[in-house]
Write a structure and sequence with these properties.
The structure is a single chain. With about 1300 residues, this protein is mainly beta. Helix content is about 5%, strand content about 45%. The protein has six helices and 108 strands. Strands 84, 89, 90, 91, 94, 98, 99, 100, 101, 102, 105, 106 and 107 form a 13-stranded mixed sheet that branches. A seven-stranded antiparallel sheet has the order 20-21-24-23-22-25-26, with no helix packed on it. A seven-stranded antiparallel sheet has the order 73-74-77-76-75-78-79, with no helix packed on it. A hairpin with a 2-residue loop joins strand 25 and strand 26. It is elongated.
Length: about 1300
């Protein structure tokens, strides 16, 4: 619905108010013609009503439609204009129909702008240049120059021809068009093709961008789906002014776009059209130059010629073969498609379309070859004053216009051509086509008289000269107050009065006058480095003119005369002036004079200097390039001295000059002149001692000191920063090696870690600055470790700049305050235990639990606050109970306390927690009818919390009942039903504890010799009569069906590091250790790497692995294998660590060949096996658990079946023959892991006495080889023991060789 705004329409006259109300009522009754434009969602309504322009404005402004404010329609694009004509304006009326549109030239009848809507004030047409800025479908002779015809309306004649013209303000038109929408939305001003910004007005309300929000303009070219940056782009509005004016940065472009405006809260869209092309002047085709040449601007930015279309004449004939003229982007040439009359007006209008934006130039100046001048014809009526106003404001390039003179036959031919042109082009017109001729009668006493010679030219280059008529009919006799008018239809002159008469056309001529400097006797200025200078000239020719600009003194490097615009010159590097410039066009020298002057030098900066003198650097402009031309004088209290010739540092802008020593600090004057010029530039030179004005410290791992001041650079002497009260008193200094940079005014340097708080100064040679104070903030690198809950421990503060005295020796201390809820706060002093460069201070901490607040205070100035923890509880051992039962669980670890203690196993709370000491606690676990179980063999998580500090470790297993098969010797062993192994009494060994060990007293059946680790990781066990090779031979990944996925032979590993591991021999377990070694290696071309820890036990002891107690026999070897970086092919795959035990099938023992035999426990998951070869027994046992990703799992150990492919592969690698080798492959299976797995097998030997005196040499002693690999995430334990049965034995040589397959590092 359309309705009024409710404001008063008027109060000046009841009649006017009543009339407007009637019009509004009529308006509301006739809104069915409203149409919505899809590209901006605006509504347009045509109203047939005989009203004036101002009344139409008032009605539209007082109306709304659908809540949208109205205004007289503004046409800003061809697309909008076609929509209004096709959808809104009445069709096929059969009569002339007119309607008011928004637009007027009320301030200057030649400059047309919008009066309404968001575009109010936008210029859309300039008559002086015949230039359109939006869309301007003027009729051929419009806008005319008649007085008051300066309000815009559209005319549709006989329902067939739509165009614009102007009418007076009070003219009663037959209708008007209102537009609704966009009044309070941003309006975009059309940009030139070369512009990189779009100006936007009306940026108000919800479209105003802010710090936290933006207003974005998104452009999409119409008519294409191509989304390249030239067709689709965006920009953000910059913050505008109080009047809603803003800008948006773009890449130069052209064409028609759909633009979406996205504000912080509102979004709208509209059509945006870049400015149409502009035609400045043309060269019609001639016999010698058959091309139509068009000079102008706004022809696009790197536009494809396929996007440009040129037509000519009213019949819109195409102009073919379009191309650029030379390298000018302002000149187009083409070949007209048909031959027209020689006269240029037959070409008009020249219609250029670039990227769908069109302009038809009708008043463009054209070149007339017979006269070699340009002419323009404004075919619209105007009185003489308005005609002269147009002439005086119109220029072709930089050439002034004047009323056309009929001073020769060629000019008369042009007049007759105009006659023919208008008769041919518009034969229906019968009114005389007459235009002003600038000729008036002579003034009184000026020789009057009749005849053509009595008229005088009154304007232009022949002003005051007598006229000559080339018309067959002589002009009328002159009469005072009259002026000539030429009738183009009959070729005759008539007269009219000089003022108050309108309706005559304007014929203009450009040129025929000498070139001239626009500002006579003025001066242009150049830098001494040379400048590109645009010159202000008039009548300076056209595209094909020969223009010369020169100087007798200075050789100009370049001159540029563009087709459209002002000429420019490039001056060479030089100095001085003024130098006379000359300027000529086509051989005609310009009138007036113009001078070139090089700018005088200026001084913008001069560096300070110490009283010792030295070089100063002078910075400024226009110093030229030759330092010998510079005269530099120094004025001091002792007088003036001319300094020696300096050195040019940067041509034109910077030079250096040597200054002598001074008697004191202060200010003196330096003056500089160039080339003996009287123009002198002066400045003050500051003579100083080193002085510090500002101190800045950038703290961090490598702290920096930045000093600002003066006098830090004297000659080539680097400054030195001294900490202390002067030379010889300091606690460190910054020398040249620590300087990052320095200049006269700034020093940047690293601060040495020996530096302390207090005084410092800067020394430059013999000069020293004043003492300044530096405050160095300590850089705390670490505070820890966590203190013990039982007390008696300290935390260590490590950092920089924590000295206990300043530069003068004054004590500085570091204090620590401890506070915790529930206990009284206390403070302690920290003790320095290590000085610079890395300070360490120890601060004692009392017993406690949980977290506490610690505040470090240094030098009573710097405060650092931390929240620290006492040591977290740790879990080392967890006992087991039977499943589905209630039992007491014992936990061994550290940092246990009764404050806030709780235990959780799995998801079940362990009650009745009793803390006996900081390393031992018990609790009762009720697992009856619970869901607790060791799923997939994984240990349950055990969570211990002490005063808010929590530790969780997967360590709890329910008891698993295993039989010892074969059974244990009941007298010397007991079956351990948790492991399925026999626990032997001291002195007994073997799988069933029935074998007595000889401990050196001659008793017992067997001996166990200690291994010795060799230089390359070899381990030897002395013995004779046996031949074992034991090794971790393969790592193999298998899937759920136990099918191999990837296999790595251990023979491929490269060992890269060997080291001895420390152990504390004072502990019970460590006292049984003879040695510990570590080997590290990796696989080539694979991610897997290995760590192997070998421990030799000199006597029987109990160790713990994964919480499981394991008895290590005397002289046994434990291997802890860690496997890193194994990349699994699937998440359900597992890893097998496969050990091989190899010996001969037959071994000579007591002069007989004996078959090798094998025995293992009878459980599904074996825990031990033994191989019997002659008088030796190789015993291997495996931990019941493995550690995977720091979680405990039940181990799974099996003997590989004899058909496994690894048996054959092993034979090939070991070069063993099937008929004499006895092989056993045992696999420890590790579940899929992400980080690490640890396995821990143990091996040993039991060697019988051997009285092998048979003299046989068939026993070849082979070395048992243990090669161990672990992956990130897996660990296991294996123990090897070799038992030797004694009976008249003779130790011959090495019997067991545990070898690392050592290779050189890659």
């Amino acid at each position: 619905m359309i309705k009024t705004s409710g404001s008063k329409i008027g109060s000046s006259s009841p009649l006017i108010v009543s009339s407007l109300l009637l019009l509004l009522i009529f308006f509301f009754q006739n809104v069915e013609s409203q149409q919505q434009f899809e590209y901006n969602d605006h509504y347009y309504v045509y109203q047939p009503a005989a009203v004036s322009y101002s009344t139409a404005q008032t009605i539209c402004r007082q109306s709304t439609y659908g809540g949208l404010a109205g205004y007289l329609v503004t046409i800003t694009s061809e697309l909008e204009w076609r929509f209004v004509m096709d959808k809104v304006f009445p069709q096929n009326t059969g009569t002339d129909v007119r309607a008011w549109l928004s637009g007027s030239a009320k301030n200057d009848f030649s400059l047309w702008s919008y009066d309404d809507g968001p575009e109010a004030g936008f210029l859309f047409y300039d008559l002086y240049q015949d230039r359109c800025y939006t869309h301007c479908p003027w009729s051929f002779a419009q806008p005319n120059n008649l007085v008051n015809n300066n309000y815009l309306n559209v005319v549709v004649r006989d329902g067939r021809y739509d165009s614009w013209d102007g009418n007076p303000l009070d003219y009663t038109n037959t209708g008007y068009i209102c537009e609704f929408g966009g009044l309070y939305e941003p309006a975009l001003k059309p940009a030139l093709a070369q512009d990189n910004v779009i100006k936007v007005s009306n940026v108000l309300g919800s479209y105003v961008p802010s710090v936290n929000s933006t207003t974005t303009l998104r452009f999409a070219r119409l008519g294409t789906n191509d989304t390249s940056p030239k067709n689709v782009f965006s920009c953000n509005l910059k913050s505008g002014d109080a009047f809603g004016q803003s800008t948006c940065s773009i890449t130069p472009n052209s064409g028609v776009f759909n633009v979406t405006i996205i504000g912080p809260t509102n979004t709208t869209h509209s059509i945006y059209q870049f400015q149409p092309p502009y035609v400045a002047y043309i060269y019609p085709p001639t016999i010698s130059k058959p091309l139509l040449t068009i000079v102008g601007s706004n022809f696009g930015n790197n536009v494809d010629l396929n996007s440009i279309n040129i037509k000519f004449s009213k019949q819109n004939y195409p102009c073919n073969g379009l191309n650029w003229f030379q390298d000018y982007s302002m000149v187009l040439v083409c070949t007209p498609s048909m031959s027209l009359q020689a006269f240029a007006l037959t070409l008009l209008p020249i219609t250029i379309t670039i990227n769908n934006v069109t302009w038809g130039a009708r008043k463009v100046p054209w070149y007339y070859e017979p006269t070699q001048q340009f002419y323009a014809y404004y075919g619209s009526g105007a009185d003489l004053n308005n005609a002269l106003k147009i002439v005086n404001n119109t220029m072709m390039r930089n050439t002034l216009a004047h009323l056309g003179l009929m001073y020769d036959q060629s000019m008369f031919s042009i007049a007759t051509s105009i006659n023919a042109y208008y008769v041919i082009s518009d034969p229906a017109k019968t009114i005389p086509y007459s235009y002003w001729v600038p000729a008036v009668p002579p003034t009184a006493g000026g020789g009057g008289g009749g005849g053509s010679n009595s008229w005088k030219w009154s304007y232009g280059p022949k002003n005051g000269q007598a006229t000559t008529s080339y018309s067959p009919v002589a002009p009328p006799t002159p009469a005072q107050g009259s002026i000539l008018v030429f009738n183009a239809l009959n070729g005759q002159f008539t007269t009219t009065v000089t003022s108050g008469v309108g309706g005559y056309y304007t014929f203009m001529e450009f040129g025929n006058v000498a070139p001239t400097w626009k500002n006579n006797a003025s001066t242009v200025y150049s830098l001494t480095s040379g400048s590109n200078i645009t010159l202000a000239t008039l009548n300076d020719g056209h595209l094909f003119s020969s223009v010369t600009i020169s100087s007798q003194t200075v050789t100009l490097q370049r001159q540029y005369v563009p087709p459209f615009g002002s000429p420019s010159i490039q001056t060479p590097p030089f100095y001085g002036g003024p130098y006379l410039l000359s300027f000529s066009v086509d051989g005609v020298v310009a009138t007036g004079v113009q001078y070139l002057q090089y700018l005088p030098l200026t001084i913008t900066n001069i560096t300070r200097i110490s009283i010792l003198g030295g070089k100063v650097t002078v910075t400024g402009t226009n110093f030229y390039t030759d330092p010998s031309l510079l005269t530099v004088k120094l004025q001091t209290l002792d007088g003036s001295v001319t300094l020696p010739t300096g050195t040019m540092v940067v041509p034109h802008t910077q030079f250096e000059v040597q200054v002598p020593p001074f008697t004191s600090a202060g200010l003196c004057t330096v003056s500089v002149s160039l080339g003996g010029s009287s123009q002198i530039a002066s400045t003050y030179l500051q003579v100083v001692n080193p002085a510090i004005t500002e101190i800045s410290v950038a703290f961090g791992p490598t702290p920096k000191l930045i000093l600002t001041g003066v006098g830090f650079q004297i000659l080539t002497i680097p400054p030195v920063i001294m900490f202390g009260n002067g030379p010889g008193t300091g606690t460190g200094q910054i020398n040249q090696t620590q300087l990052l940079s320095y200049s006269d005014t700034e020093i940047e340097a690293y601060i040495p870690y020996e530096a302390r708080q207090g005084n410092f100064s800067v020394a430059v040679g013999p000069l020293t600055s004043q003492l300044s104070i530096i405050t160095l903030s300590p850089y705390i690198m670490s505070v820890g470790p966590s203190p013990s809950i039982t007390g008696g421990s300290s935390i260590t503060v490590t950092g920089r700049f924590l000295a206990n005295t300043d530069t003068s020796g004054t004590p500085l201390n570091l204090g620590l305050s401890v506070s915790k809820n529930g206990i009284p706060p206390y403070s302690v002093n920290c003790t320095s235990v290590q000085g610079a460069p890395l300070y360490q201070l120890e601060c004692p901490i009392a017993a406690g639990t949980g977290s506490f607040n610690a505040t470090l205070v240094y030098s009573s100035i710097f405060t650092f606050k931390y929240q620290l923890n006492y040591q977290y509880p740790t879990i080392d051992l967890v006992s087991s109970i039977d499943s589905n039962s209630t039992g007491l669980v014992s936990i061994v670890g550290s940092s246990f306390a009764s404050v806030g203690v709780s235990v959780l196993i799995g998801n079940t709370s362990c009650s009745d927690v009793s803390v006996f000491n900081s390393t031992y606690l018990t609790c009762t676990l009720n697992a009856v009818n619970s869901n607790l179980s060791n799923t997939n063999g994984m240990a349950l998580p055990v969570r211990v919390e002490v005063d808010g500090l929590v530790t969780t470790k997967n360590m709890f297993f329910f008891n698993i009942y295993k039989l010892c098969l074969p059974q244990c010797d009941s007298q010397h062993g007991t079956c351990n039903n948790k492991t399925g192994r026999c626990d032997c009494q001291s002195g007994y060994t073997g799988y069933n504890c029935s074998t007595l060990i000889d401990n050196g007293d001659g008793e017992g059946e067997v001996i166990v010799k200690p291994p010795v680790i060799g230089e390359s990781g070899n381990s030897f066990i002395p013995g004779t009569g046996y031949n074992f090779s034991v090794s971790l031979s393969y790592l193999r990944e298998v899937d759920m069906d136990n099918q191999p996925i990837k296999t790595l032979p251990m023979s491929d590993i490269k060992w890269t590091n060997r080291s001895s591991l420390p152990f504390n021999s004072s502990t019970t377990t460590s006292s049984s250790i003879a040695s510990k070694e570590r080997f590290e290696g990796h696989f080539p071309n694979d991610t897997c790497s290995v760590q192997l820890d070998l421990t030799i036990f000199s006597k029987e002891t109990i160790i713990y692995f994964a919480g499981e107690p394991i008895t290590m026999p005397t002289n046994s070897i434990k291997y802890e294998i860690t496997i890193y970086n194994w990349t699994f092919s699937g998440q359900v795959n597992s890893l097998e660590a496969i050990y091989s035990a190899i010996t001969d099938k037959q071994t000579e023992y007591q002069c007989e060949d004996q078959e090798t035999s094998f025995l293992n426990d009878q459980n599904d998951n074996i825990s031990w096996f033994e191989i019997y070869a002659g008088g030796a027994t190789m015993h291997a046992k495996f931990a019941d658990r493995v550690i995977v990703d720091d979680r405990y799992y039940t181990s799974r150990v099996s003997i590989l079946p004899s058909n496994d492919q690894l048996y054959n592969l092993l034979k090939d690698q070991q070069q063993q023959q099937q008929n004499n080798a006895f092989q056993v492959l045992a696999a420890i299976t590790v579940p899929n892991f992400a980080n690490q797995a640890i396995i821990d097998p143990n091996f040993g030997s039991l060697i019988k006495f051997n009285s092998n005196d048979c003299g046989s040499e068939k026993n070849q002693w082979k070395v048992p080889v243990i090669v161990v690999c672990s992956v990130v995430g897996a660990a296991a334990l294996i123990c090897i023991t070799i038992f030797i049965v004694k009976k008249n034995y003779t130790l011959r040589k090495i019997a067991m060789h545990i070898k690392m397959s050592a290779r050189s590092s890659s």
